[in-house]
Write a structure and sequence with these properties.
With 468 residues, the chain is an alpha+beta fold. Helix content is 36%, strand content 20%. The strands form 4 sheets. A 7-stranded antiparallel sheet has the order 15-12-14-13-17-18-16, sandwiched between helices. Strands 5-6-10-8-9 form a 5-stranded antiparallel sheet. It binds flavin-adenine dinucleotide.
């Protein structure tokens, strides 16, 4: 009997009959995420129903040295949930309960399979707010958000997922259950392993529950579109707004190509000469928003905005956001192939980065539409191509982009993580000593390397290159 079969028998015994899926037609949907990483079929999927189930799966996998890949909504952009060594995919769609909202403590206790948009909706019904808002919020799950430390447009004002995680239950590679963090607002006991776990891409432990911080729901929100006649004009806007005491909830950038795509879908009527748009949202006390909007409008016109349009009702606002959220898929429909990078540079270097993307497009004869979270200097730089022969040019352009980002004191990924796709580039940003230290941390948490193998570290990713 193979070690996988032995592990699956132990798992089925512990988790109940029917807990293990092996039907190939059902396994297919667990073979990929929402990235260009090649799909790899798992040999089995276990849909966990409790922390005890997860612990039983890991104990059996550890004993028989079977690889396990945790999976949330499968919306990841770097192949993080792709089971490159085969083995078991541990899925969380059945652990999807919001277990409670504590209005006194401003916290919520959730299972990892809760869809992020659903958590936002449930908390808002209680007049509370869970700010992290990845644009995939209707299909990504909290476990995946914690593993990726997801951000979103409103990270500009509210920060990313890590800022809202107080504590979590995790299962280690050998099945040990740990409670990390705390339920209190303050606390400095021991190492901050909660922070280490957030953003570790499912390579150090499996999140089975989390206590998340909530804030009061902003009373009102206004959404404005500022149109500019050139991309060069938008870069100074973020710094100017902040210097003049404005802190919008988000400042999203769309370049000319992104505007061309969004325009019909959002029903936008904007000046013809518009080459760049900033989608800006203000939130807070209703009584103060009108004054703030007027002040912001004046600043934007001083910075040569052609037009500042304000969404007149919630329907108009929702239409704008729906087309912004769809943008990635709309771009995908423009060409046979698309690779999307999510680089970040200091805000003050955004003009350099935007200029460099245009230069790259000219130099490599590629279409490179760019949009993203301008407030954070986090841009989605998209490479589109049709002919497979063009891929070599795309690879050269991506490497050049990364070099420039590092020169500008930026980072390779603001949101999506490293996964499989960015692993080869990690040494461009991190020194050999830093990578080696992280590999040692991985060894401590997962000495047999069974937890999400093939991710983050170049040597590990190379081991599974072409495995599927
Ligand atoms: C259209 C679109 C828009 C997007 N917009 C944004 C955005 O604005 N901001 C942003 O940050 N990202 C964005 N993303 C990327 C993606 O949605 C996020 O990375 C998200 O956090 C992934 O969550 P998921 O549940 O889909 O995770 P998955 O893709 O299933 O997994 C992601 C990683 O988490 C690990 N994992 C999953 N569950 C657990 C668990 N319980 N314990 C431990 N590890 C686990 C997996 O092994 C994998 O490494 C977008 C993606 C799409 C397709």
């Amino acid at each position: 009997m193979s070690s996988l079969d032995s592990a699956l028998i132990a798992i089925e015994r512990a988790c109940g009959s029917g807990s293990v899926i092996r039907d190939p037609s059902l396994l297919e949907s667990y073979s990929h995420d929402d990235s260009e990483a090649l799909p790899c079929m798992p040999e089995a999927v276990v849909r966990a129903t409790s922390t005890a189930d997860v612990s039983a799966v890991m104990k059996a996998a550890y004993a028989h040295e079977v690889p396990v890949t945790p999976r949330g909504g499968g919306t990841g952009r770097v192949g993080g949930a792709v089971p490159v060594p085969g083995g078991i995919v541990l899925a969380f769609e059945k652990m999807n309960a919001v277990e409670g909202i504590d209005k006194g403590e401003l916290t919520t206790r959730v299972q990892p399979g809760v869809i992020t948009g659903e958590l936002k909706r449930v908390t808002e019904e209680e007049n509370l707010y869970y700010p992290p808002d990845p644009n995939s919020l209707d299909s990504c799950a909290i476990g995946g958000n914690l593993a990726a430390n997801a951000g979103g447009p409103r990270a500009f004002k509210y920060g990313v997922t890590r800022e809202y995680v107080m504590g979590m239950d995790v299962v280690l590679a050998d099945g040990t259950i740990l409670k990390l963090g705390r339920e209190t607002k303050k606390g400095v006991t021991g190492y901050d392993l909660t922070s280490l776990m957030v953003g570790s891409e499912g390579t150090l432990g499996i999140v089975t529950e989390a206590t998340l911080r909530l804030i009061p729901k902003p009373e009102a929100t206004v959404t404005a579109l500022a149109c500019f006649s050139s991309l060069d004009e938008v870069a100074p806007v973020v710094s100017s707004l902040m210097a003049q005491g404005q802190l919008p909830a988000c400042i999203e950038l769309l370049d000319e190509e992104a505007i061309r795509i969004v325009r019909p879908e959002a029903g936008l009527t904007i000046p013809n000469e518009t080459k760049a748009i900033l989608l800006i949202e203000l939130d807070g006390e209703e009584a103060r928003l009108e004054g703030e909007l007027e002040r912001m409008g004046n600043i934007l016109f001083d910075l040569d905005a052609l037009e500042v349009l304000v969404a007149q009702h919630s329907g108009e606002r929702e239409r704008l956001w729906a087309s912004r959220r769809e943008l990635s898929y709309s771009l995908k429909r423009q060409a046979a192939n698309k690779l999307s990078e999510d680089v970040v540079v200091p805000r003050t270097k955004m003009a350099d980065l935007l200029g460099y993307c245009a230069e790259l497009g000219d130099r490599h004869s590629l279409l490179i539409p760019t949009y993203g979270h301008a407030g954070d200097g986090n841009l989605h730089v998209n490479f589109l191509w049709n002919d497979p022969d063009e891929k070599a040019r795309v690879d050269l352009a991506i490497e050049a982009l990364f070099r420039r980002v590092i020169e500008l004191r930026g980072t390779l990924s603001g949101e999506h993580g490293i996964g499989i796709l960015k692993a080869p580039y990690l040494p461009m940003e991190q020194s050999p000593a830093l990578i080696a230290l992280q590999e040692k941390i991985k060894d401590v948490f997962d000495p047999k390397h069974i937890l999400n193998p093939g991710k983050i570290f170049p040597a590990d990713a190379k081991r599974f290159h072409g495995a599927c």
